[in-house]
Amino acid sequence: MDSSGPYRILMLHNRYQIRGGEDESTDAEVAMLRERGHTVELVELDNKSIETVADKVRAGLATTWSRKGAAIVEQHLAGGHYDILHCQNLFPGFSPSVYYTAARHKVPVVQAVRNYRLLCASANLFRDGHYCDDCVGKMVPLPALVHRCYRGSLASTAALVAMQSVHKSMGTWSNRITRYIALTRYVRNRLVEGGIPADRIVVKPNFVGSLDVSEEDPGIEGPYAVYVGRLTQDKGADWLARTWVAQNFGMPLVFVGHGDALDTIVPGNEARICPVGKRSLTQTYRIIQGAQMLVQPALWPEPFGRVVVEAYSLGVPVVSARVGGLQELVRDGVTGFTYEAGDDRAFGDAVRAAMDPARHAAMSAAVRREYEEKYSPDANFGFMMDIYRDAIVGVASKS
Fold first, then answer.
1. Which uninterrupted H or E stretch holds 104?
2. pTM score of the predicted model
3. Which of 59, 87, 236, 359 pairs with 177 at a CA distance of 20 to 30 A?
4. C-alpha to C-alpha distances, 142 to 120, 165, 210, nearest whole angstrom
């Protein structure tokens, strides 16, 4: 097995029903690797195929051990030489069965960790409006069953609890994954708390390439602030809308995304908050580019926050809650302003500081430098090559 490259990579990803940051990051990594001379075969399943009750039952049963996922990987590894099995989201179609198939072929496994699925049935360490780590580190995470943490369903939660428990008892998480990629130190620390060996975890952030802002003008007049993401409680969208209206900043806040968090807040406040629904990526980037600031009000511990890096690449400062991986992305007073999640007064101070024209000009230059140095494809590619080489050498030494 050649550790010097270029590499042949088999990449797996189970797409979500609603396209999100994990899908975007997967596509970005594939493009980055191919553009730099590596061969990537991307094999995907899609949650959009899970429609009927029977589909959901089959998906739940396959969560712990998917014969289909193992067969797909077996077919590829038996039919061609691959240096790496790079796993993105495996839930629910592929399952951890693919790790064992890779082991039989002596192919190292790199697993990206873009959520908390290994530790938490709901994958977000958030329940009833607050942070929750009740299941972290437990052999059998019974609190998840008590609270029906996955979509309020006992059956669906039980499927996830079984997956977590069975593979912890089998030693899958400790022995079958060569390297984990954590997006931030925060995620790394949570994985270690959950029993993942620290020496198998590498921190590598997400990145974004050149963003297309060529689509026609979205018709939003400035100055304005912008929020981009799902309009849900864990994302802080409802809290943000209420707080923005109450603080009366004198600047509209544009909401780009889908969800029902603003349904009871919007009427009568159109001059202060402006929901424009879900837009195309190019139009979303155009809206971010025209904003005075991007606001990230998450209440749950975001593992990363891809939209922050997108804003940086477009020269837009960020006002962000100090939660999860977000606190590692936004440097207070340099690339934006931070505040304790849910603190109305501190949030108001941060927004008003970001509105200062003198500070805004300096920050616009600083965020662009931050992007080039840490979150561009060129900066990220070296991290990825180090991880691949380390994984390949590690497997070869045990052969």
1. helix 97-104
2. 0.93
3. 59
4. 11, 10, 44
